Amino acid sequence: MKSVKSWLSKFRAKPATEAERFEQIKAEILADEAEPRTEGTTSRRKFLARLGVGATLTALTGQAFAYLRALKPNVLYEEPQRFKVGAADQFSEGGKFLEDKRLFVFKDRNTFYAVSATCTHLGCTVKMQKLNQKKRVKMRGREFDEQYEFHCPCHGSKYYGDGTNYAGPAPRPLDYFKLEVAPDDGQLIVDMDQIVDQNFRLTV
Ligand code: FES
Prior knowledge:
Shape: elongated
CATH topology of the largest domain: Rieske Iron-sulfur Protein
Number of domains: 2
Strand content: 25-35%
Radius of gyration: 37 Å
Low-confidence stretches: none
Bound molecules: FE2/S2 (inorganic) cluster
Number of strands: 11
Largest sheet: 7 strands, antiparallel
Number of helices: 3
Helix content: 25-40%
Distance between the termini: 98 Å
CATH superfamily of the largest domain: Rieske [2Fe-2S] iron-sulphur domain
């Protein structure tokens, strides 16, 4: 049952200032708190107060999200696929792994070629495996001794030294990318947007 104090408060004159209004609300809440509760009833003011707080938080969260979203431009930044990898004389014989590009650059005397380290099965990074003994393999009609292979640690695909897949689920050979010499400073440029034949060699 509502207290007489609470009932009388409805007939009070409207507060003239914000401070008075605040004091009135405080008094009403205290009176409401003092009321005896019956089981199963919920304080209407408390419910409305919680509803008000919830609505305010929802509105603030929405505004904050919109603000943060506006700070982020709708642009996807992709790594450049054509880049310099250094001067030819900086490479030693054999393969050099460029981890951040997932790429091998090979030097064979005065020729160069670039092989992708991305497994053609599901995209794991393959590892270059030096062989303890030279292995006689036949590829594209010719036989030769290879000294290294590429092995994928994820599902066991294996590739010969020229990138040809021969074991595991890999469906095709590793990609080869176009190499060229930069006209301005003579560095080697790899273009990962241009897949070339396995026989491609850049002679410098
Ligand atoms: S990702 Fe290389 S074998 Fe599956």
